[in-house]
């Protein structure tokens, strides 16, 4: 393998306690790739640890020593984005969020209810009228802006991560397995946005979902394919 450079995932951007949030970490790796990639999470993502980006044939891998953490393969997103729900419908859904993740105890950077505004994204999706869908309203905090005043790309990836899990109606605990995001336009911070998700299939522990980010009037800004693996609730809480 040909080593290129390193990245480090700060403690702030955890998913499960003690490991990196999948969407944020994948988005951080994506900034070092050319073109769309599906990024697979092979192992828990270490925090505050230099991780090596290396070429492995046509793929790119992220390594912690000899452990493969993520694998990125060139691939376009395969789940077609849906039209946005209305702002009113997304707002109504957000008022009754599903208990995905770890509920009130969650510390996930994206969906953690225990995170303060500006320190976490605080994205909690509720059920839309259509089965296996979810939505919420999200206003990006100014701390997540790039120098141009727009939401940083890796934050957009993160915002498209956990909403996929909220669309799995019979799953309260799941871990992101793969993600492929496409950013059409980064939004400015401080403006309310619509986030929506919809389950596209699954069998056994494996589920797939599409997620999307829209302006308040429904213009598509970004979308992603997500692959999820349901986990045993007791085991999840034991490891939390």
Polypeptide structure, described:
The chain has 240 residues and is an alpha+beta fold. 15% of the residues lie in helices and 33% in strands. It is built from 5 helices and 11 strands, in the order E-H-E-E-E-E-H-E-E-H-H-E-E-E-E-H. It has helices at residues 22-30, 87-94, 153-159, 162-166, 233-239, and strands at 2-7, 37-41, 51-56, 59-64, 67-74, 126-127, 133-138, 174-183, 193-203, 206-214, 220-230. Strands 1-3-4-5-2-8-11-10-9-7-6 form an 11-stranded antiparallel beta sheet. A hairpin with a 5-residue loop joins strand 10 (206-214) and strand 11 (220-230). The longest helix is centred in the first third of the chain and has 9 residues, at 22-30. The model is unreliable at 235-240 (pLDDT under 50).
């Amino acid at each position: 393998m040909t080593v290129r450079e390193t990245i480090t995932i700060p403690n702030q951007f955890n998913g499960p306690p003690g490991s990196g949030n999948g969407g944020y970490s994948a988005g951080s790796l994506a900034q070092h790739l050319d073109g769309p990639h599906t990024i697979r999470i092979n192992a828990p993502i270490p925090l505050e640890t230099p991780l090596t980006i290396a070429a492995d044939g046509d793929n790119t891998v992220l390594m912690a020593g000899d452990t493969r953490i993520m694998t990125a393969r060139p691939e376009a997103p395969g789940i077609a984005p849906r039209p946005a729900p209305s702002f009113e419908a997304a707002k109504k859904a957000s008022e009754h969020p599903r208990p995905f993740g770890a509920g009130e105890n969650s510390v996930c950077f994206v969906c953690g209810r225990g995170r303060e505004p500006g320190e976490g994204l605080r994205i909690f999706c509720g059920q839309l009228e259509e089965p296996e869908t979810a939505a919420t309203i999200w206003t990006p905090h100014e701390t997540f802006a790039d120098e141009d005043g727009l939401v940083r790309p890796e934050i957009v990836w993160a915002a498209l991560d956990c909403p996929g899990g909220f669309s799995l109606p019979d799953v309260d605990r799941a871990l992101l397995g793969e993600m492929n995001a496409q950013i059409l336009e980064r939004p400015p911070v401080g403006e309310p946005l619509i986030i929506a998700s919809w389950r596209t299939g699954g069998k056994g522990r494996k589920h797939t979902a599409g997620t999307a980010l829209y302006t308040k009037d429904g213009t598509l800004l970004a979308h992603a394919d997500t692959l999820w693996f349901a986990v045993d609730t007791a085991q999840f809480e034991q490891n939390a």
